[in-house]
Specification:
The complex is a heterodimer of chains A (about 130) and B (about 240).
Chain A (H helix, E strand, L loop, with lengths): L7 E4 L3 H13 L5 E4 L2 H10 L4 E4 L8 H10 L8 E5 L4 H9 L4 E4 L4 H16 L1
Helix pairs in contact in A: 2-3
Chain B lengths: L1 H8 L3 H15 L11 H19 L2 H59 L9 H34 L2 H29 L6 H8 L17 H10 L3
Helix pairs in contact in B: 2-3, 4-5, 4-6, 6-7
Classes of the chains: A alpha/beta (about 130), B mainly alpha (about 240).
Chain lengths: ~130, ~240
C-alpha cells in the first residue's frame, strides 16, 4: 500500500502533541491521519473505521496507552495493527511493559522528525517483510 | 498564651511544645493496667485528643486552615499556566503551518520560474543591463528552493519545540493532583482538630474559588474586547 493511502490514528491527550505528530507524518509522506484524545476515544474510532497504524501516548486519562495497547492486541480485528508508543515515560519498566504488551515501537519525548521517520519506516518494513 | 507567642517568634518551637505536651500526657499519672486489651485503643484515642488540643492551642489549626485556603488558588494558577502556554503553543503551531504552506508555494514557483528562465533565449540582442538583471534573477531562482527548504527545516524545529506544552503540562497535572491530595489530608486534619460548630466554615474555606478564575474575580478582564470597552467607557 502506498504511504499516502495508509491511515494513521494519533492518540494523545494534548492537542499540541497531536498536531505536531500529524504535521510530521504529513511531511514524511503520510497525510492521511485522524486523532483521538485518549485510549477510549481511540478504541471507538479503531472499531468503527479502518486504520493502518496507531501512534499513541501512554499517560492519558480514561484509558491510558497500555490499556489501549492491551485492548488492541486482545481484539481479533485489530490485533495485528502496528502501535508506536510516543511518550514522555522513559522509565525502564515502562519500556519493558510496552514491549511485553505488544508495542511495535517506542519513542521518548522530546523526539525529532528523523526518529519518528526511522521508527515508522522500520515498523512498516517489518509488516511488509 | 506564652506558647502561642513563642510559636510566632521561633520556627520549630511549636513542634517542641507539641512534643512536650505529648510527653506531659505520657508523664501524667497512669491509669491502672487495663484488664481489657482493647483499652489500649481508648488510651491511644485519649493521647490523640491531647495532641489535637495541643495543636489547636499552639495555633496550628489556623496555619493549616490558611494552607488549605491557599491550595485551590495555587492549583488554579497551575491550571492557568497550562492553559495559557497551551494557547500560545497552538498559536505558534498554526503560524508554522501557514508559514510552511507559503514556503512550499515559494519553492514551487521559484522552480517553475527557474525552468522558464533556463529555456529562455532572447530573440533580439539585449542590453548589457538587461543581461545582468537576467543573470541575477536566474542565480536567485536557482538558490531559492534550497533557501525555502532550509526555512522549512527551521519551521519544523519551531514546531517540535512546542512539545514543551505536553511535557510541562504533564508535570503541572501531577503537581495539581499532589496539591489536591495534600488539601484533602489537611482538611481532614483540620476537621479533626476543630470543634463541631466551626467545621462547616472550614469545609467552605476548603472550596474557596481561585483568583485566576474570572467568575471569582468580577473585576478581572479576560479579553482584549473587554479591556477596549472599559477604556472606551472611560473616554480613551
Amino acid at each position: 500500500m502506498a504511504s499516502a493511502e495508509l491511515k494513521f490514528l494519533i492518540v494523545d491527550d494534548f492537542s499540541t502533541m497531536r498536531r505536531i505528530v500529524r504535521n510530521l507524518l504529513k511531511e514524511l509522506g503520510y497525510p492521511n491521519a485522524d486523532e483521538a484524545e485518549d485510549g477510549r476515544d481511540a478504541l471507538a474510532k479503531l472499531r468503527s473505521g479502518r486504520f493502518d497504524f496507531v501512534v499513541s501516548d501512554i499517560n492519558m486519562p480514561n484509558m491510558n496507552g497500555f490499556e489501549l495497547l492491551r485492548e488492541i492486541r486482545a481484539d481479533a480485528a485489530l490485533k495485528s495493527l502496528p502501535v508506536l508508543m510516543v511518550t514522555a515515560e522513559a522509565r525502564k519498566e515502562d519500556i519493558i511493559a510496552a514491549a511485553q504488551a505488544g508495542a511495535s515501537g517506542y519513542i521518548v519525548k522530546p523526539f525529532t522528525k528523523a526518529t519518528l521517520e526511522e521508527k515508522v519506516t522500520k515498523i512498516l518494513q517489518k509488516m511488509g517483510g | 498564651m506564652g506558647a502561642r507567642r513563642g510559636a510566632a517568634d521561633t520556627p520549630g518551637c511549636c513542634e517542641q511544645a507539641a512534643a512536650e505536651a505529648v510527653r506531659a500526657g505520657a508523664a501524667a499519672p497512669r491509669p491502672p493496667e487495663p484488664a481489657d486489651p482493647y483499652d489500649v485503643f481508648r488510651r491511644i484515642g485519649r493521647l490523640t485528643r491531647r495532641l489535637h488540643d495541643a495543636l489547636a492551642e499552639l495555633g496550628y489549626d489556623r496555619k493549616i486552615e490558611h494552607a488549605v485556603g491557599a491550595l485551590p488558588d495555587a492549583r488554579a494558577r497551575l491550571s492557568w499556566i497550562a492553559e495559557v502556554s497551551g494557547r500560545s503553543a497552538e498559536r505558534v503551531l498554526a503560524a508554522v503551518e501557514r508559514g510552511k504552506a507559503k514556503q512550499q508555494r515559494l519553492r514551487a514557483e521559484a522552480e517553475a520560474l527557474a525552468a522558464r528562465w533556463g529555456g529562455f533565449a532572447a530573440a533580439a540582442p539585449v542590453s548589457e543591463q538587461f543581461a545582468a538583471l537576467a543573470a541575477d534573477t536566474r542565480a536567485h531562482l536557482a538558490q531559492a528552493p534550497a533557501l525555502a527548504a532550509e526555512t522549512d527545516r527551521e519551521l519544523t524545529e519551531i514546531m517540535l519545540a512546542q512539545d514543551f506544552h505536553d511535557l510541562t503540562g504533564q508535570v503541572l497535572a501531577r503537581i495539581a493532583a499532589l496539591t489536591r491530595e495534600l488539601e484533602d489530608q489537611l482538611v481532614r486534619l483540620l476537621l479533626d482538630t476543630t470543634p463541631p460548630e466551626r467545621r462547616a466554615s472550614i469545609r467552605e474555606a476548603g472550596l474557596a474559588g481561585p483568583v485566576t478564575d474570572a467568575e471569582a474575580e468580577p473585576d478581572a478582564l479576560v479579553s482584549q474586547q473587554q479591556v477596549d470597552e472599559l477604556l472606551a467607557d472611560l473616554g480613551f
